[in-house]
């Protein structure tokens, strides 16, 4: 009898352990999941089709972001939008595998229209994380992507021409002369720069000048997270950067931990907004690490945004957070933010609205 009771206890213990293990790694209907910044519904649908067909999280992210590049979402993703000061469109993109922590990224890439595919090639075929400029273009073409090609469009050229007619205003220069023309620019006199550089009035003026030309349709990114059927997580971003940026500028798009971040053990995050400000805080890295410490996605997202807002109260930006079980939330500052989700219980993509 004693032996029989011992066997029963062992059986119950094994059953309890198996149930707990299954709850941790099994598919209980929380995934696959696709989450994307903004109402980029077609991009989420493309990623969902891939993930529903059994593709990996990385492949689904590439499919989704590629769809947005082809559609030129909001004119701020893919070729044909966001001209820099020279009228040229360049691309930034990133892919991160949350299972291996591998990252591939390209920045200020010219002449190649497939930003997210180029980023994946960096991850697949190099030991590097980030390639930039014309060298990134040469690499992508050598790996089989089409190019070189002109990334400008009639719309981007027209936008740039009107900006030139408006004496190149607004722009991203500061502490220069002349202030209200297309340059060439020179630093202000050193003595003049030294006067009041630490004053709160000058600081707030600089911040306000930024917020006047950063918004939904001229400074945006698709940031996407996917949890596949196996529970593996990947993220990706793609953008053509800030409109009228100084040539050579790289934003948060290709920076792991800033525009996006993923870890199979925890979850993922995606960001959009004023990348020059947001990349100084690595908000997506913070979101994931906060969730690692037990914080719910909503609180983790809010905490990351509040940290930036304390230093830059007029900044514009947003993040979404999703934990490894598929629970998602968003937070924003300076604008109303929307993000898109597709999960098994949904018949189609649903758009969630987050208010400041």
- Spans of at least 5 consecutive residues whose pLDDT stays below 50 are 3-29, 196-209
Radius of gyration: 23 Å
What's the β-strand tally?
Answer: 14
Q: Assign a percent range to the helix content.
A: 25-40%
Oligomer: single chain
Distance between the termini: 66 Å
Strand order of the largest sheet: 4-3-2-8-7-1-13-14
The major beta sheet can be summarized as:
8 strands, mixed
Average pLDDT number: 88
Walk me through what this model shows.
- This protein has 356 residues and is of the alpha+beta class.
- It has helices at residues 2-25, 41-52, 57-71, 115-125, 133-142, 154-165, 190-194, 200-211, 275-278, 283-292, 297-311, and strands spanning 33-37, 91-97, 102-109, 130-132, 176-177, 186-187, 222-227, 233-239, 260-263, 267-273, 317-323, 328-333, 337-342, 350-354.
- The strands form three sheets. The protein has an eight-stranded mixed beta sheet. Strands 9-10-11-12 form a four-stranded antiparallel beta sheet, covered by helices on one side.
- Strand 9 (260-263) and strand 10 form a beta hairpin.
- Helix 2 runs antiparallel to helix 3.
- 48% of the residues are buried.
- Residues 3-29 and 196-209 have low confidence and may be disordered.
């Amino acid at each position: 009898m004693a032996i029989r009771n011992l066997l029963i206890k062992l059986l119950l213990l094994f059953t309890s352990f198996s149930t707990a293990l299954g709850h941790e790694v099994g598919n209980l209907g929380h995934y696959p999941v696709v989450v994307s910044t903004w109402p980029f519904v077609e991009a989420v649908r493309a990623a969902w089709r891939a993930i529903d067909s059994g593709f990996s999280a990385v492949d689904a992210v590439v499919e989704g972001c590629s769809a947005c590049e082809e559609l030129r979402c909001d004119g701020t993703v893919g070729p044909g939008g966001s001209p820099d000061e020279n009228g040229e469109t360049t691309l930034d993109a990133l892919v991160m595998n949350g299972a291996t922590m591998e990252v591939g990224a390209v920045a200020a890439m010219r002449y190649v229209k497939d930003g997210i595919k180029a980023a994946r090639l960096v991850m697949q075929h190099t030991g590097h994380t980030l390639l930039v400029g014309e060298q990134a273009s040469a690499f992508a073409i050598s790996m089989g992507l089409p190019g070189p090609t002109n990334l400008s469009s009639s719309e981007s050229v027209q936008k740039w021409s009107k900006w030139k007619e408006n004496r190149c205003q607004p722009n991203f220069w500061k502490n220069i002369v002349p202030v209200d023309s297309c340059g060439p620019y020179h630093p202000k006199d050193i003595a003049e720069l030294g006067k009041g550089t630490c004053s709160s009035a000058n600081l707030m003026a600089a911040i306000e000048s930024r917020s006047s030309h950063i918004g939904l349709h001229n400074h945006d990114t698709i940031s996407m997270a996917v949890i596949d059927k196996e529970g593996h997580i990947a993220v990706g971003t793609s953008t053509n950067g800030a409109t009228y940026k100084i040539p050579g500028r790289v934003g948060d798009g290709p920076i792991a931990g800033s525009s996006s971040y993923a870890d199979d053990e925890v979850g993922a995050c995606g960001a959009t907004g004023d990348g020059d400000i947001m990349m100084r805080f690595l908000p997506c890295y913070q979101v994931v690490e906060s969730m690692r410490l037990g914080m719910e996605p909503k609180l983790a997202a809010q905490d990351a945004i509040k940290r930036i807002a304390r230093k830059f109260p007029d900044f514009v930006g947003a993040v979404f957070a999703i934990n490894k079980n598929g629970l998602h939330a968003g937070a924003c500052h300076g604008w109303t933010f929307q993000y898109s989700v597709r999960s098994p219980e949904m018949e189609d993509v649903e758009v969630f609205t987050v208010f400041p």
